[in-house]
Every structure is written in structure tokens, then in C-alpha cells.
Specification:
single chain, 404 residues, mainly beta, three-stranded antiparallel β-sheet, globular
């Protein structure tokens, strides 16, 4: 999992390379299926600039996930979004937490004559990683008739086809020598449309109520092919539209990096995708969630690398916030790196205002790591052979952590 400084460096270097303003995508979780941020995303691995991303949030970072798989503007775990390898935790996806571990993909093709495989969806670690096997292979041919009747042939699953569009925004505070207290606001969007030959390996997952612990996460993901989806624009925000451009013929899409929030309240927003020979045209709408303000825990200090939290491992951790209206808040605690790292994520309706992480799960964390909390709204739908995901994440807090 990346630290706050790593996220900031990723944001700056990614956008510097693209000739854009500071802000933008980041990664932080192993492949899942992209979130928060990413992007969020976000949601397990997410389609990001060059791979799947789950948060403008999953695996986030460079590679198969948003401009770094979790892609989150400003960095962040963003579950990354798509359940494909790599995770749009994306532009800071909120809590991509391990991306990973999604439930089994779609069902195999029906038996008998060519049955199309079902489109599955995976729920990922931290934000929901969408993905799934989306098996589109035709079912096996019907067996030849026997004395008692015909035998049914077995169905074969086809490649996974996942499309992710992830919005993200965040504000991070720093104290810089000679400058003093500084706040950086960043927002943007990433997208990726990928075709993979099969599911990536998943983390080992333990579930306790609304929380999950991810361990033994893979360090590699299933290779995938990033394809063109035509034009992509998002309306309803400020400014509007937000237009995404293809980074290269082998990478996903990214928007301009904005140094201000794209939304400041619950806001209806729509993504419209023009389509191509590889990806069907479609549109989806969600309510970008009202940003939250974290009230506990509070940082023990704020320095050049951002906020630092000191959190006990031997007690329940109560996380509280204000401003929750819609969407889901994901809290992610991480320590170590894959495959030996540990990620603990817990989720709650934004309107609940709090979530508690049990001491039994806190005890699984190492001495140091990271803490993120953010709110994400998302939607998925099947379009032809594709599983499409659209998500928006607002990071509430992020920083390094000392677990004592």
C-alpha cells in the first residue's frame, strides 16, 4: 500500500509526464476488481490510465489500473474500480483496500446449444471491485442423443470484458518548511476498457460483519488488453463536461487535472461513451456523493508527507464523520506490502455517520502503514458482453499511520 507521500509523488510525476497540472491518478491496492480511487476506488483494481483501476480507485498505480490502477485524483486508495486485474482505486480512489478478492465471475455458458455466459460481477475489497468473469463463451454443443435422450454439452466461459469510468476528488494538508501549512485540492477522472483472458489471483479474505481483512495478496495480475471506447464525457459537474482523452493506443483515458472540487454536494452526473468497434456505446448516471468530513480519528501530526495517525491495535477503532448523505464510506487500514501485507477495510452507509473496526481485526496490522477514509457512489450494468462500472469518490482523509 502506498503512503501519502508516495501517492503525492505519483500524482505529481504522472501529471508532469502528461503535461497536466498537479493532481490526478494514484494507486494503492493489489488487483481486485478498482476502488476507492482507486480510484475508491474506490473498488478493487480499476481501469486507470494504463490498466484496470478501482478509484480514480484496486491496484491503482501504474500498470494495469488507471494511470496506476487505483487512479485517484490526488492519490488514494479508491478501491480501484473494475474487478479486472489491477485496480481505479484510481485517482485517489477511496479505500481500494486490497482491491482484490471478488466473488466468482459470471456463470459459464448454458448447456446445450450455444448459451451465452452470464455477466458476473465481483465485489472487491475496500470499495466494490466490479469485474467478474463475464463469461460470454457459447455453451458446448448439445450431446448426441442417446438411447434415453440427448446429453447436454458443457458451457465454456469467454474472456472478461470490463469498462470503468471513475471520478475522484480530494484535499490533502501538508506543512512544508519555509512555506508552512499548505492544502492541495485535486480532482479528475480516469477510464479503462480491458479484456483479460481470465480472473487474476485473489487475496485471502476474512469477513467480519461489514469489515474484511485481506492477506497473501498476489504481486502480479492477469495480463489484459486495453481497447478503445471512442469518446468519453461526463456531464453535471463544475465544469461540465469533463472530457477524457486516450493516453495512448495501449493505455486508458484521463481527464485534465483540476485544482478544485468538481462537485461539493450530492450531484447527479452522467457519463456518455461513444463506443468503438470493440466497445458498445452506452451512458450511465449516478449521484456524485456529498463529500464527508472526518471527525475521528484525528491526525496526531501533519508534516511534509501529510497527516500521520497514531492508532491503538488493542482496541476497537471508532471512525466518525459528518456530511454523509448518499453513497458508501470505506475506511482502509494497511500495513506492509504484498504478499505479506495486511489490509483491513470496513464499510458503512454514508448517512450512518460512523463505523467501528473491531480490536480483533486491528490486531492483525503491523507497526506502521496507512489510513484512508472516503465516500463513493457507484453503479454497474451489463452492455452486450461488457460489465460497465461508473463511480465517483470523494476522499475524506488519508495519511500514514503508526499502530501501537
Amino acid at each position: 500500500m502506498t503512503t501519502t507521500r508516495a501517492r503525492l509523488n505519483f500524482v505529481l510525476t504522472t501529471f508532469a509526464a502528461l503535461g497536466l497540472a498537479a493532481g490526478g491518478c494514484d494507486s494503492s491496492t493489489p488487483s481486485g476488481a478498482g476502488g476507492s480511487a482507486g480510484g475508491a476506488g474506490g473498488r478493487g483494481a480499476m481501469a486507470g490510465a494504463s490498466g484496470h483501476a478501482g478509484g480514480i480507485s484496486g491496484s491503482a498505480g501504474s500498470g494495469a489500473a488507471g494511470a496506476g490502477a487505483s487512479a485517484g485524483a490526488g492519490g488514494g486508495s479508491a478501491g480501484g474500480a473494475a474487478g479486472a486485474p489491477a485496480g481505479v482505486g484510481g485517482a485517489i480512489g477511496t479505500a481500494g483496500a486490497g482491491g482484490g478478492a471478488g466473488t466468482a465471475g459470471g456463470a459459464a455458458g448454458t448447456t446445450g446449444g450455444a448459451g451465452a455466459g452470464g455477466a458476473g460481477s465481483k465485489t472487491g475489497a475496500g470499495g466494490a471491485a466490479t469485474g467478474g468473469s463475464a463469461g460470454n463463451g457459447a455453451g458446448g454443443a448439445a450431446g448426441s442423443a442417446g438411447a434415453a435422450g440427448g446429453g447436454a454439452g458443457g458451457g465454456a466461459t469467454g474472456p472478461t470484458k470490463v469498462g470503468v469510468v471513475a471520478l475522484t476528488e480530494s484535499t490533502t494538508s501538508f506543512v512544508i518548511p519555509t512555506i508552512g501549512a499548505t492544502t492541495i485540492t485535486a480532482a479528475g477522472a480516469v477510464a479503462s476498457y480491458s479484456i483479460s483472458s481470465g480472473d487474476s489471483s485473489a487475496c485471502q479474505t476474512t469477513t467480519a460483519g461489514s469489515c474484511q481483512v485481506f492477506t497473501n495478496c498476489p504481486t502480479t495480475s492477469t495480463p489484459s488488453t486495453i481497447v478503445d471506447a471512442g469518446t468519453i464525457s461526463i456531464t453535471g459537474l463544475n465544469p461540465s463536461p469533463v472530457t477524457l482523452s486516450r493516453i495512448s493506443a495501449t493505455q486508458g483515458y484521463i481527464s485534465t487535472s483540476y485544482m478544485a472540487y468538481l462537485w461539493t454536494a450530492s450531484t447527479p452526473t452522467t457519463v456518455t461513451v461513444g463506443g468503438s468497434t470493440s466497445v458498445p456505446a452506452y451512458s450511465m448516471s449516478i449521484n456524485a456523493p456529498n463529500p464527508i468530513t472526518l471527525t475521528a480519528p484525528v491526525p496526531s501530526s501533519v508534516g511534509q508527507t501529510g497527516a500521520t495517525y497514531t492508532i491503538p491495535r488493542g482496541a476497537n477503532l471508532a471512525v466518525t464523520w459528518t456530511g454523509g448523505v448518499d453513497g458508501t464510506v470505506t475506511v482502509s487500514l494497511t500495513s506492509g506490502t504484498a504478499p505479506s501485507g495486511v489490509t483491513v477495510t470496513c464499510t458503512a452507509a454514508a448517512s450512518a455517520g460512523s463505523v467501528t473496526i473491531p480490536a480483533s481485526l486491528m490486531a492483525s496490522l503491523g507497526a506502521t502503514g496507512g489510513f484512508t477514509a472516503g465516500v463513493t457512489s457507484s453503479a454497474t450494468k451489463t452492455v452486450g458482453e461488457w460489465l460497465m462500472d461508473f463511480q465517483a469518490s470523494a476522499l475524506g482523509s488519508q495519511g500514514t499511520a503508526t499502530f501501537n
